Amino acid sequence: MKNIFKILLILFSISCFSQTIEQRPLESYFDSNCPKHVYFKDVNNLLDKYVGTWVYNDGTHYFKITFNKQTFYRETPVANKKITIYTDRIYGLYQYKLNGVEVYNVTNMKYAHSTSNPFTYMGFRIFFDEPTTASCGRSKLGKAILQHSINNGLEQLTWIRTDENMEMIWCQSFDSTPFKTPANMVLTKVN
Strand, coil or helix: what is 181? Predict the structure, then answer.
């Protein structure tokens, strides 16, 4: 009888403290009535057209990025708020060559990923970064808008990147050099 009571007590405790996670469409990310535990799922498959390998090559600059879809990604918690947000997102692994010489090959690290609310009236928004040896990282953050189109049967992404300076008061050893990859490109889907 004691064992049955203990089992019932444990089950009751688990049910009381478990979290119900509400599922909403990804495009409703900035809904003001957001529950404390929510999953913004790509129910309309809006991210799917970005998934795949894309290449830009103008003879001088070669940039290849592979976007993958990540589901149920846990966002960084908002300060002083007891909320848990999960989203679907894309992230990119890329290679960059200048005049045929490889400058970056970050096919094992996520240096490009979609933002919390990736859709804007201009296109799809991602954060972009480049590797550095500086202990504090870069003092800049790239924000790229991707515009998907189909031209003559070819899927293309117009990539427009702006760079923002980040305030780095907590560290003195950061990389302030400009990004090496082109800021504006038209990439073609290769698979």
Answer: coil
Of the candidates 73, 71, 86, 114, the residue with the CA atom closest to the CA atom of residue 23: 86
**Interval 98-156: pLDDT, tens:** 999 999 998 776 666 665 556 665 678 888 888 888 888 888 888 889 999 999 999 99
Q: What is the rounded radius of gyration, in angstroms, for the C-alpha atoms of the chain? A: 21
Distance CA 16, CA 34 (A): 21
Q: Count other C-beta atoms under 10 Å from residue 7's C-beta.
A: 10
**For residue 111, how many other CB atoms are within 10 A of its CB?**
18
Say how many C-beta atoms besides its own lie within 10 A of residue 94's C-beta.
21
User: What is the C-alpha separation between 187 and 126, in angstroms, rounded?
Assistant: 15
